[in-house]
Write a structure and sequence with these properties.
182 residues, two-stranded antiparallel ribbon, 8 helices
Amino acid sequence: MSTNAVPTDPRLDLLLFCLDRSRERFDRALAGVTVEQANTRPAPRTAPRIDSLTWLSWHTAREIDLQISALTGTAPLWTASGFAARFALPLPDDTEDWHHTPEQAALVRIDDLTLLTDYLDAAYTLIRDYLTNLPAAALTDVVDRSWDPPVTRASRLASIIDDAAQHSGQAVYSRRLLGLEG
């Protein structure tokens, strides 16, 4: 766990530890890459669903942002903190990126890597603050009754963190497919 973590319930500590691992993996995946490399899909013809480092990073920040904002009842960082304007993507602000086709994913491009790391940092700070201040008893709260069985807060948080772990691993794989070490 990072050194700035506040001791909490062991279940929350575990969630924070897993979260921090995925953020560190993104740092490794993005280290030393150029904007062109970040925006490149490694194998667009043979494996069109292997997304660019840009899309994987953006999507991860976005899914953390949207889901934690929903849990807190606050506006997403995407719009409230100006990330939509900074990214200026040719997609609607409410794009459902988890449903993106390879062609839509390819539209997620940046001109400056700092933009990606800024959004990742903001989203990871959002979820870290949420977890750090969450009473352990709240983990059993039902947050979504549209599923059978209904989704608890713990289940939703595990899903968010698992998604971040998957995409950070995919980012490392995409980096290697680009011929980069790491």
